[in-house]
Amino acid sequence: MSEPLLQVRDLDVRYGDAQALWDVAIEVHEGETVCVVGPNGAGKSTLVNAVAGIHPAHRGRISVGGVDVTRLRGHRVCGHGVAIVPEGRRIFPRMTVLDNLVLGAYRKSARRPHRETLAGVYEIFPRLAERAGQLAGSLSGGEQQMVAIGRALMAQPRLLLLDEPSLGLAPVRVDEVYDAIGRINERGVSVVVVEQDVQRALAIAGRAYLLGEGRVVMSGPAAELRDSAEVRRSVLGL
Amino acid sequence: MNVIQATLTGALIGGLYALMAAGLSVTWGVLRIINLAHFGLILIGAYLTFQVATSWHLDPVLTLVVTVPAMFVAGAAIQWLFDRLRLTEFNSLLVSFGLLIITIQVTSNIWSADFRRMSADVNPYATQSVALGRLVFPVTTLVAFGLAALVVLGAHLVLRRTFAGRAMRAIAQDRAVAGAFGVDHRRLSVLLGGVVGATAALAGMVFALSNALTPDTAYEWFGTVFAVVILGGIGEVVGTFAAGILVGVLSGVVSAVWSPAAAPFVLFSAIILALLLRPQGLFAAGGVR
Q1: What fold is seen in the domain A6-236?
Q2: Can the keyword Zinc-finger be found in this entry's annotation (chain A) (predicted)?
Q3: Mind telling me how many Å the CA of A108 is from chain B's nearest CA?
């Protein structure tokens, strides 16, 4: 198999003295949808934040498209095609929807074609075109999630990281968001979804990783994890 | 008639307040730094205007060719320093106050504590005025207002329309996420510090046009300029402009109908009242923060 788009090896991440991840290794290949599940506090968000350059790695190696990005300063990581939809959306509430989206295209190679990219984002989320001039903070939760995903797409990522995209949304909105994730993946973007809503994430993913207490506990095809007693016990509490 | 004249003159003088306050407000809003050293930069800008105009017999407005680049570098350097020190909002108040005191001391060593004023032969603006019917406007206040309007309009357009401007607003709202989209916080803060320094050069020049300089002047700006920043809404350039005009008008009218000594009393009472009603600032709308 060719070299993976994302390769994380031996990753340790710390917050001060508290260690959040130990020896984590994951891989994402071109075009895949991979999900990372696990209970609260397992280190799922820490993992994607480390990949996106928001939080530094303490040890180990993160490479994107064969390039080592572990020691890059945070703002340089997106230049290698990584974009994140952070937990809790974290849109810029006092900027308009349009300004949020255009900011997503800040990295150099995404700037010039940003109008075309924007048209593509509006195709996926027509509602954002209607709301373009509104302050993003005034939108509903579901619409804010669209802004967060749209903003990430504006960076023209090869790898899209989504951290708890269903959090706090009504079920019908969650359907919309997951429908959009599927379409984004069909356009050739590799996707990593971190979720507490395990059923939903496993349904969309090809492969999955189960995290527990900062370590990879299990990995394999999503269908396999869905049926495993380990997943049922640690995440679903069954 | 007296009141109309006082209102209009006050509004024009408010331009100078806005010019002094704009940089402070944006630095506070975007970088979470309350940069009291900004007053030091304005002071140096004023003295440099005096010095260059006097020594080279240059029109004071033309001294901007020298002072703007110089203050750009100074402002950028200060911001670079703040960035290395990883200042919190509160610490920035202390460190920048220290810088201000040092600046005032250095100024006083170079130019002495005596009043310095550009002589009339190098500074034609001080004595000229424009008459409109029975209303009279000193040219210096027109320059102040015009420059303030230009700076505010420029800053507004840059913040709304450019990638760098959007990035600055994004930094103000969520620095980490802005970084994840490629916004280099350090580089932008140094750039912003430079631009803010350049506005200090403008404000200093305007001040030197119509005032005698003494190093302690910097302290006198505190109250009014902070009032303008808070009233305008932190990080709001257009709000700052409006607040500058309001404060100018209020001071002017109270001085005219009551007494100049009463102006600070009325001004700050009005500000306390305004903030009780609108804690985010009178003119805060959709600014950087």
Answers
A1: Rossmann fold (3.40.50)
A2: no
A3: 8
